[in-house]
Amino acid sequence: MKRLWSSIASAALLVACALPAYAEKTMETDIAVVGGGLSGLSAATQATQLGAKVVVLEKQAKVGGTGLFCEGVFAAESKLQKRIGINVTKDFAYKLIMEYSHWKANSALAKHFVDRSAETVDWLDSMGIKIEYIGVGGHGGPLTWHVIAPGPDYLSGKNKKDYHCERIINVFSKYVTDKGGQILLQTPGTDLIMDNGKVVGVWAKDKSGEKIRINAKAVVIATGGFSSNKEMMKKYYPEYPDITPVGNIGKDGDGITMGIKAGADLEGMNTVQGYRPGLPGFHPADQMIALAVQPYFWVTPRGERYTDESNIVFWPYSNNSLVRVGGVAYAIYDDATRKMAVEQGIEMPLGEWVLAGTKLVKWEDAFNKELARKRGNVFKADTIEELAKQLNMKPEVLQASVARMNTAADTRKDAEFGKDPKFLRKVATGPFYATKLTPRHLGTLGGMKVTANNQVVKTSGDPIPGLYAVGTDSGGMYGDSYDLLLGGGTAGYAINSGRFAAEHAVKYIKQ
């Protein structure tokens, strides 16, 4: 019998040694922040300043998320605006947001955001984050876009990415860790911990697979939406679920899914941050795309013009019009337009990526390289008829569309869509070029329904104690379309919502 028990014990020991040791680890904190992007780090920074102990969970190998790609933030009535005579009042900005959304936006949330926006720019300044200049969202719009200036590490050459919103990420992450907070990389949050209807922590898993229980008095969800989750995109954005995300990695809807399990209501899930049309796999600064999205002449796969191309000024409009016709269009231009863009520069800027007046000296290499790949993205022909055949269009249809555009350019009057005459250009000098355009977006904009302080609410309207959603994990800032009228809105909301959640959470845990 002793020999039998000895054999069993030895076998059990061998099995135990063969299995991976996924022991549970427990951590204690005041506030757990799930997501280390712009909104999450804003929440962590504000909470730390208010004396809370903070743990940040970040799924990726570095912090920043989509916040690494933005350039500036919204504010109304900032000190800098007042100093240089820019008159964008809080009332004007608030009403513009609400009217643009047809009053579908969460009015209390929008008002809180606008009213605190200038103070938040002061808050950034107090941490050494300076403003380079104030610009517009869409060309000719209100001056609300406070573009972040290069930091000292950029100027010294130590870190050439210490500018725009990456400057904010650098400052926030350093502040949190310097003050004793923890940022756990490659450690996504997986589930909320509930106790009698209250959120009391979050489960996480590190890169080795070890589960971590984080006991927290409040949890802030900041995982950045669901643009990488194909099933969620099909469910919530059926108009064009394959829309190309720009600057979005690992946005799987983790936070929203956790919120749903905890009983969160949802809002605005069918809204995306529509961007300039383009192609998958091409950088926002690609010069081949930069010429294609100039506001000249776009047609459907049938060869018919479908919109006023100058709606690229407010690029969510160009996204909407492209989605409406099926999500595929072709920008067609002639050699005279190509020559103008290369030798004189483009008319329509692509934000800070490609400035107005930039000479597209890299266009030829980019276009010819893609042409040689024969992937159906770009085409070149000596005649419009030949180009139509390459595009599988009826030549007479495309020729008629070109003829109408040329008449509009000659008469300086667009009878089809009323486009500003300064953007009417002829398509007459061969060779002719075509670039395929498909919808792109900068992220999803719907999420958990929240209060003005970013508390997550249930379908009953009651807040879920201890749970907050910020940035693009929260819904309510938009109607059915991204608002580019007020430049810096999404980045500004990310930072402000993080602050709102942190402030309220600190008060909550002290009750």
From TrEMBL:
<keyword id="KW-0732">Signal</keyword>
<feature type="signal peptide">
    <location>
        <begin position="1"/>
        <end position="23"/>
    </location>
</feature>
<dbReference type="InterPro" id="IPR050315">
    <property type="entry name" value="FAD-oxidoreductase_2"/>
</dbReference>
<dbReference type="Pfam" id="PF00890">
    <property type="entry name" value="FAD_binding_2"/>
</dbReference>
<dbReference type="GO" id="GO:0016491">
    <property type="term" value="F:oxidoreductase activity"/>
</dbReference>
<keyword id="KW-0274">FAD</keyword>
<feature type="domain" description="FAD-dependent oxidoreductase 2 FAD-binding">
    <location>
        <begin position="30"/>
        <end position="479"/>
    </location>
</feature>
<dbReference type="InterPro" id="IPR036188">
    <property type="entry name" value="FAD/NAD-bd_sf"/>
</dbReference>
<dbReference type="InterPro" id="IPR003953">
    <property type="entry name" value="FAD-dep_OxRdtase_2_FAD-bd"/>
</dbReference>
<dbReference type="InterPro" id="IPR027477">
    <property type="entry name" value="Succ_DH/fumarate_Rdtase_cat_sf"/>
</dbReference>
<keyword id="KW-0560">Oxidoreductase</keyword>
<protein>
    <submittedName>
        <fullName>Succinate dehydrogenase</fullName>
        <ecNumber>1.3.99.1</ecNumber>
    </submittedName>
</protein>
<keyword id="KW-0285">Flavoprotein</keyword>
